[in-house]
Design brief:
Layout lengths: L1 H24 L4 H7 L1 H8 L7 E8 L7 E8 L5 E8 L7 E7 L36 E4 L5 E8 L16 E5 L16 E6 L1 E2 L1
Antiparallel strand pairs: 1-2, 1-8, 1-9, 2-3, 3-6, 4-5, 4-7, 7-8
Bound molecules: copper (II) ion and zinc ion.
C-alpha cells in the first residue's frame, strides 16, 4: 500500500512544481508577477495595523533643481496598493527622471539618508513588473515642457502598515536627476537625488 500511495502522489507533486516554475521563470508579464506574489499579500493583510491610505510630500534636496511632488498610496478593492505620483521639477522639463522607493524614511544629507533602493525580497535591480526588480523600482517618469510628470502603478508587493517586507510606511520616495537604465546594479545608474519625501499615514 505504501508503494501505491507514493506513485499516486509523486506525479501530482511534479505537476505542481512544474506549474510554479513555469509561472516564475518564463512569464514575465506584470499580471503574472503580481499573481505569484498574492500569497505574501494575504499573509500581510491578516496582520493588524493596516491602513488604506498613505502619502509622501516630495521636496527638493538641491536649490538648483527646485521642485516638488506628491505620492499618494491607496488600497484598492482587490487588496493591491495603487501609487499615484505627481512630480513638478521645472529645471528637468522634457526629460525623463527615475523614481524609486528607498529603504529609509530619512531625507537628510540631500536624500542620501534614504540609503539604497527598498529591496525586501533580495532581488536584482530591474524594470518594474519584469522577472526581477526591487519593490521600490518604480522607474522613469517622463516630464512635460513645464517639468510636470505623473505615473500610476499598483502592486501587491506593497501594504500600508503590516509586515516590514511589504510595508511602504517609513520608506522614502526619491526623485533622481537621471534616467534609470534598469540594468546597472544596484542603482540603475539614475544619477543624483533631487527630490525626497517620507511616506507616512494619512
Ligand atoms: Cu533611487
Ligand atoms: Zn532598484
Amino acid at each position: 500500500m505504501k508503494k501505491t500511495s507514493l506513485w499516486l502522489t509523486l506525479p501530482l507533486f511534479l505537476a505542481v512544481t512544474a506549474a510554479c516554475t513555469n509561472t516564475n521563470t518564463t512569464d514575465t508579464s506584470h499580471d503574472s508577477a503580481m499573481h505569484a506574489d498574492s500569497m505574501a499579500m494575504d499573509t500581510a493583510g491578516s496582520m493588524t495595523g493596516m491602513a488604506d491610505k498613505a502619502h509622501a510630500d516630495i521636496a527638493s534636496t538641491k536649490t538648483d533643481t527646485a521642485g516638488s511632488g506628491r505620492a499618494e498610496f491607496t488600497k484598492r478593492d482587490d487588496g493591491t496598493i495603487e501609487l499615484s505620483l505627481n512630480v513638478d521639477f521645472p529645471k528637468m522639463a522634457n526629460k525623463s527622471v527615475a523614481v524609486h522607493l528607498h529603504e529609509h524614511g530619512d531625507c537628510g544629507d540631500a536624500g542620501k539618508g534614504a540609503h539604497g533602493h527598498w529591496n525586501p525580497t533580495n532581488e536584482a535591480h530591474g524594470k518594474w513588473g519584469s522577472a526581477a526588480y526591487h519593490s521600490g523600482d518604480i522607474g522613469n517618469v517622463q516630464l512635460d515642457s513645464e517639468g510636470k510628470g505623473t505615473v500610476t502603478v499598483s502592486s501587491n508587493r506593497w501594504t500600508i502598515g503590516g509586515d516590514e517586507k511589504t510595508n511602504v510606511l517609513g520608506r522614502a520616495v526619491i526623485v533622481h536627476s537621471g534616467v534609470d537604465d534598469y540594468k546597472t546594479q544596484p542603482t540603475g545608474d539614475a544619477g543624483s537625488r533631487i527630490g525626497c519625501g517620507v511616506i507616512s499615514g494619512n
